[in-house]
Design a protein that fits this description.
With about 450 residues, this protein is an alpha+beta fold. Helix content is about 55%, strand content about 10%. Helix 3 packs across helix 5 and helix 15 packs parallel to helix 17. The relative contact order is 0.06. The N terminus is likely disordered.
């Protein structure tokens, strides 16, 4: 009976403070409680199915069924607060936004999803602590983009699908249009989303977009009239603008633009080989022998073009490493000598592909660094022979024979015999041509 008395006492207090009850149990319109509160009431009623207004109250006694429902609602609210008081502070706090979403919010960039992507294709390590996405640095995004003025939505300022090229962007490499990185980092593969960007974020955009458009249209700077080194705006004025009237207009009158991104694929840093320009010097040094090994394996399989590509990649890495060294210093000399075997191997691939002049160039590059390289001399002699440069071929073959008489004499003699045959055929062909001209003149 004590518990019933307590309930009746609470109900009596509720009658005296009806206004206060309404604030706690109902919203301003007198309807059911808010969403979060409704969920709590539902939880209480389903957890304690044995509690019933009809079982404990009657219309002629302490209160009505309506008042009982309000009382249960208050009890559920008290239960919720008691549960929250027992949780750690971190459980009651809203999780923080991902860095990309926080950036968009801070710069007033509004996102609108046009087509939902495939979240299942997002790796687990790309999840942000507070929900959303957190791609690691050096993630590569491959996407199409369209740009338009929201006041003229039927006209696109730029559209990569029209150009037939997709855009590639590495996050964390200081791309000149900063907000592009953050917009893409809020997307998943297959998603199409539009971003409304305010004018203050687009002051430098027209000049950067000129470079992108030049690239998409395969336009390069005029090498005969290179631009003078002046400040950006002086240079633009001297050149008569950006070369595109619509971009000149945006430069003079910045305004809100809509950027529509169609994200086709995402390549995480560990999922594929890095491009050379984002490698560290240490990574380049480690990659060079791997490329040589890969090239040798491809050559053994008869994939000569692919093998030559690997050797060329290694040469490019050596060139990039050399740029940071002073010419003549020991490290610069060492790196320069590293090129020799790659040039020799690439020449062999070029010879197999019947690119004889390419083979001559590659072997000559090797011989400028190692004048007595027998392999380079022999392969250049073979290439000269294939192009009917008999005297040059003979000189290289004889030098090979003098440098390696024990191992190369048999091969050189065979090649010299073949060279003699080629020489006779060339002379015979020249004789016939001369004879034909003489008869035609008579």
């Amino acid at each position: 009976m004590a518990s019933v008395a307590a309930v009746r006492s609470l109900s009596t207090k509720d009658k005296k403070n009806g206004k206060e009850k309404t604030k706690e149990g109902e919203n301003e319109s007198g309807s059911t409680p808010a969403t979060g509160e409704t969920a709590i009431v539902t939880e209480a009623s389903t957890t304690h199915d044995s509690i019933s207004c009809d079982d404990h109250f009657d219309d002629g006694g302490v209160g009505s069924k309506e008042e009982s429902a309000k009382l249960i609602n208050r009890m559920a609210e008290a239960l919720r607060r008691a549960r929250e008081d027992g949780l750690p502070d971190s459980a009651n706090k809203k999780p923080p936004l991902s860095a990309a979403l926080a950036y968009l919010a801070r710069h007033n960039i509004r996102k609108r999803i046009i087509h939902v992507g495939s979240a299942s294709r997002m790796p687990a390590e790309c999840g942000a602590p507070g929900g959303g996405i957190a791609y690691p640095k050096l993630t590569k995004f491959i996407f199409d983009y369209r740009i338009r003025d929201p006041d003229a939505p039927e006209v696109f300022i730029d559209d990569t699908k029209k150009y037939g090229k997709r855009m590639e962007l590495y996050c964390g490499k200081d791309f000149q249009i900063e907000f592009w990185e953050y917009c893409l980092q809020t997307m998943v593969v297959g998603e199409v989303a539009a971003f409304m960007v305010p004018p203050r974020q687009l002051v430098a955009f027209p000049a950067v977009n000129k470079k992108l458009r030049d690239y998409m249209l395969d336009r390069t700077a005029d090498s005969a009239n290179p631009p003078k080194h002046t400040c950006a705006f002086m240079s633009l004025q001297a050149q008569g603008g950006l070369g595109y009237p619509d971009l000149d207009d945006l430069l003079a009158k910045p305004r809100m633009l809509e950027f529509i991104f169609d994200l086709h694929s995402v390549v995480l840093p560990h999922e594929g080989p890095k491009e050379s320009w984002i490698m560290t010097p240490e990574e380049k040094v480690e990659a060079i022998p791997r490329l040589r090994q890969a090239g040798n394996e491809l050559y053994a399989q008869g994939q000569w073009f692919e093998a030559a590509t690997k050797y060329e990649e290694a040469l490019n890495l050596i060139e990039q490493l050399s740029l940071s060294e002073k010419p003549g210093d020991p490290e610069h000399v060492r790196l320069d000598q590293m090129r020799v075997p790659f040039y020799v191997n690439m020449a062999q691939c070029q010879f197999k592909l019947k690119d004889y002049y390419g083979a001559i160039r590659s072997t000559s590059e090797a011989l400028t660094r190692d004048t007595d390289n027998v392999k380079a001399l022999f392969r250049r002699a073979q290439a000269y022979s294939a192009t009917s440069d008999v005297q040059l071929a003979e000189a290289d073959f004889l030098r090979v024979k003098s440098l390696a008489p024990d191992t190369m004499t048999t091969c050189v003699d065979r090649e010299l015999a073949n060279l003699d045959r080629i020489d006779r055929e060339c002379r015979e062909q020249e004789r016939r041509l001369l004879a034909g001209k003489m008869f035609s003149q008579t």
